[in-house]
Amino acid sequence: MAKVTTSSLLKMKQEGKKFTALTAYDASFAGAFDAEGIEILLVGDSLGMVLQGNEDTLPVTTDEIAYHTRSVRRGIKQSLLIADMPFMSYATPEQAMHNAAILMQAGANMVKLEGGQWLLQTVTMLTERGIPVCAHLGLTPQSVNVFGGFKIQGRDEANAKRILEEAKALQAAGAQLLVLECIPASLAKTITQALTIPVIGIGAGADTDGQILVMHDVLGISSGYIPKFSKNYLAQTGEIRAAVKAFKEEVANGTFPGKEHTFN
Ligand code: KIV
């Protein structure tokens, strides 16, 4: 596989080829995922839950994401590396620029930010200064306390319309990728068709351009609980590299996510 870039992902979308993404937090797993052809690795702030054992992602710091980004970078040959900007690290455009620079210098190719309308100026400022942005809409876990729990978003018409409009506005502001988390499959399909940038889904049905999962869920080690939208590929294959390969194959051939992983 040649080096994955925002241009190659765009080409995949245009050609209707599905791509895969996994979270990664260290060099060894990153190396294995990269070798299996996983196009995108994300140093997610999910590390606050799956590595640190917190109930949510809020305690994670920029320094912690930078530490894991440096480790993952050392394991990568081809995959695109995205680093999550943690809670309150981008509350103002100035904070965003300062902290995004730390993550880019740690080895990220792109940063991911959760939010819609309020982020537009920040997305433009980052992009203009050479920092590619992946936007994130739907169930944005840093807002868990505003949502009153980890709940599916965009179920009613007004919220669905708002998410669609925010997706278009983020693209216009300069975002080059979009993650949609835990929204109805029909809404994710509408957004994916409405945007020219690649859209990555998690709990967003089968019609997004790519799929992302948390590596601990794929390997069935997320404290005994696997979310409805995820799949334990290790149980199916019995070997880590085979599990990653099966995930990639099932996304490419449209088997994953199935109806049982999807919200309607
Ligand atoms: O933090 C994370 O791992 C994420 C993915 C679930 C998309 O944001």
Automatic annotation (TrEMBL):
<dbReference type="GO" id="GO:0005737">
    <property type="term" value="C:cytoplasm"/>
</dbReference>
<comment type="pathway">
    <text>Cofactor biosynthesis; (R)-pantothenate biosynthesis; (R)-pantoate from 3-methyl-2-oxobutanoate: step 1/2.</text>
</comment>
<feature type="binding site">
    <location>
        <position position="114"/>
    </location>
    <ligand>
        <name>Mg(2+)</name>
    </ligand>
</feature>
<protein>
    <recommendedName>
        <fullName>3-methyl-2-oxobutanoate hydroxymethyltransferase</fullName>
        <ecNumber>2.1.2.11</ecNumber>
    </recommendedName>
</protein>
<keyword id="KW-0963">Cytoplasm</keyword>
<comment type="function">
    <text>Catalyzes the reversible reaction in which hydroxymethyl group from 5,10-methylenetetrahydrofolate is transferred onto alpha-ketoisovalerate to form ketopantoate.</text>
</comment>
<dbReference type="InterPro" id="IPR040442">
    <property type="entry name" value="Pyrv_kinase-like_dom_sf"/>
</dbReference>
<feature type="binding site">
    <location>
        <position position="45"/>
    </location>
    <ligand>
        <name>Mg(2+)</name>
    </ligand>
</feature>
<feature type="binding site">
    <location>
        <position position="84"/>
    </location>
    <ligand>
        <name>3-methyl-2-oxobutanoate</name>
    </ligand>
</feature>
<comment type="subunit">
    <text>Homodecamer; pentamer of dimers.</text>
</comment>
<keyword id="KW-0460">Magnesium</keyword>
<dbReference type="Pfam" id="PF02548">
    <property type="entry name" value="Pantoate_transf"/>
</dbReference>
<comment type="similarity">
    <text>Belongs to the PanB family.</text>
</comment>
<feature type="active site" description="Proton acceptor">
    <location>
        <position position="181"/>
    </location>
</feature>
<keyword id="KW-0808">Transferase</keyword>
<keyword id="KW-0479">Metal-binding</keyword>
<dbReference type="GO" id="GO:0015940">
    <property type="term" value="P:pantothenate biosynthetic process"/>
</dbReference>
<dbReference type="GO" id="GO:0000287">
    <property type="term" value="F:magnesium ion binding"/>
</dbReference>
<dbReference type="GO" id="GO:0003864">
    <property type="term" value="F:3-methyl-2-oxobutanoate hydroxymethyltransferase activity"/>
</dbReference>
<keyword id="KW-0566">Pantothenate biosynthesis</keyword>
<dbReference type="InterPro" id="IPR003700">
    <property type="entry name" value="Pantoate_hydroxy_MeTrfase"/>
</dbReference>
<feature type="binding site">
    <location>
        <begin position="45"/>
        <end position="46"/>
    </location>
    <ligand>
        <name>3-methyl-2-oxobutanoate</name>
    </ligand>
</feature>
<feature type="binding site">
    <location>
        <position position="84"/>
    </location>
    <ligand>
        <name>Mg(2+)</name>
    </ligand>
</feature>
<dbReference type="InterPro" id="IPR015813">
    <property type="entry name" value="Pyrv/PenolPyrv_kinase-like_dom"/>
</dbReference>
<feature type="binding site">
    <location>
        <position position="112"/>
    </location>
    <ligand>
        <name>3-methyl-2-oxobutanoate</name>
    </ligand>
</feature>
